[in-house]
Amino acid sequence: MSASAAALPRAPIPRRKRSVWREVRKQWSAYLFLAPTLLLFAVFTVVAVGYAFWLSFHQWNILEPVKPYVGLANYSRLIADEAFGRAILNTLVYTAASVPLTMGIGLLIALLLNAKIRARGFLRTLFYLPVVTPLVIAAIVWKWLYNGDYGLLNYYLLELGLISEPLRWLSDPNLAMPAVIITTVWKGVGFAMVVYLAGLQSIPEDYYDAAKIDGADGLRRLKDITIPLLTGTTLFLAVISVLGALQVFTEIYIMTSGGPLRRTTTIVYHIYTTAFKNFDMGYAAAMAFGLFAMMFAFTLVQLRVMRGEVEY
Amino acid sequence: MAVVARGRRLAPAATAARKPFDWRGAVGKALIYLVLAALAVVFIAPFVWMVSASLQDVSDMFRWPPQWIPRSPDLGNFALFFQQANIGRLFFNSAYVAVTVTLFQLFTASLAAYTFAKRRFPGRDALFLLTLGTMMIPGQVTLIPTYIILKNIPFFGGNDWLGQGGHGWLDSYWGLIVPQGASAFAIFLLRQYMTTVPNDLLDAARIDGASEFRIYAQIVMPLCRPALAALAIFSFSFQWDNFYWPLVIVSSEALRTLPLGLALFVVRNRTVWDLLMAGSVVATLPVVIVFLLFQKHFVRGIAMSGLK
């Protein structure tokens, strides 16, 4: 309460405490307005985070009443756990492939659409449609497209002579992750495109005119004007996309269930099975904090790396 | 391009009159259209195939080469899906939860946003920082404790006053709706928008003796319609898409939402693709319609989320 008391007008110094209280009483309705929000945050965020932290130091199978204190055992188990290491690796592969691909193709389409072409609104809508499609539906439709025997993808790859026999997309350990990544890219490109389009439209036309007069060709203008001026947009997209990718779950659940051979078991999928299939609540809570730490570190690094370039 | 630039520098007035046909520009444009068309086909194909397959008989669906245009389109799959998967129930649950959560969020967020934007009171800045801080915490961290908290809500689902003995708010509409009732993102967006409402307007109303609630409801809210609309669409489509939370807390069939119902259909290896495609069309149609009708709000929502 004292933090913002200084901001209050006409607060006599010797009677500060009492006047804060008077102000609280005078502005009582402000607290009433905030009550629903604060109550929900208190229970489902503040208490929940504290409880998760407490849980991560205990072992608890949800069915039993006893929750023995185990100290740091859950965390040391986390470091030694091969399955968790595998899940981290899979998640990193997924993130490292899907985020640049989504953003790159999104930028490409945005640049093409920005080239004063016809049917621009129509195409923008078309590329955005996968974004509004429910993720579960996208995963189901793509699972059907990947089908080994009747899938559309195999049909056209065979027709074009790119493969000689049908690929088992989702049951081949080497193809399952790429297949999931392709689906994610298809689903996400439209969002990157819309964000980049907004970024492109905020670049003043004069810059390009000036560069043209100086004889800079299209590629040069792209490299020296467009890309640098989009750094802020890129940073925003990178942070949001990486945070999303590190938490991938739905596609995995529907398309591969973490298989084959755990090759698509990601961190969140692993947390899900640990908590709600094996009911190992304390250990799952420790994993969730591990993920939190990773997300935090990634965001900090991205901000640090990009900050050097964002000044213009 | 270089041709244009040189021409302009030499004789700026004459270029418009006798500009030679710009071959490089034309080829470039053609190339752009070509690349865009190819990408567009790839992006739209899964949709077309989904709709087409949903109208086909099973025997036609598994035919090679694939039948893009159904030979004898009928709605048999939809009828079958309505019977087998009880899709009416799934649809109702999805719509009920999505609409309720959206209204709930708009209510709590607009009240909080008004308070943070237009009132001065002790603790305001600290509380606002706390609100923003909740955005940094990933859902994964709070998911497990929230599950346990819901299980122990007193007096519900067979629980006693200590929250023991039953399943609490798990497997109930309460559990699907209430934990999602406050959104820091929504508060932040609305607060940004509300700060643009002139203070004079509010002061005039205060002098006339209007209560804070009346100012909020009758002056500020009507002025915030565009922001509220954008937020409502965002929130609705997010909830319509929501899968993880229902998956974790719903166990009875009567409470399944569309994504959950369809996903369980697939995962339990009932790969009845004809029915699934029909179900997918049913689940996609509402959001696509909402999107096509309110496209402007969608784009504005993205622009508002701190980009500009």
Question: Main sheet of chain A, how many strands, which sense, barrel?
Answer: none
What CATH first level of the largest domain in chain B would be assigned? Mainly Alpha
> Low-confidence parts of chain B lasting 5 or more residues at pLDDT below 50?
1-16
Q: Based on the coordinates given, report the CATH architecture of the largest domain in chain A.
A: Orthogonal Bundle
Could you name the CATH topology of the largest domain in chain A? Answer: MetI-like fold
What does this structure look like?
The complex is a heterodimer of chains A (312) and B (308). By secondary structure, chain A is an all-alpha fold. Chain A has 2 domains: 2-55, no CATH class; 78-310, MetI-like fold. Chain A is 71% helix and 0% strand. Chain B has helices at residues 2-10, 23-54, 58-61, 76-84, 87-118, 124-133, 139-151, 173-177, 184-194, 199-207, 212-223, 225-241, 244-249, 258-267, 273-293, 295-304. Chain B is flat. At the A-B interface, helix 1, helix 2, helix 4, helix 5 and helix 6 of A face helix 1, helix 2, helix 5, helix 6 and helix 7 of B. Chain A: InterPro entries: ABC_transporter_permease, MetI-like, MetI-like_sf. Chain A: Keywords: Cell membrane, Membrane, Transmembrane, Transmembrane helix, Transport. Chain A: Residues 88-302 form the ABC transmembrane type-1 domain. Chain A: Its main location: membrane.
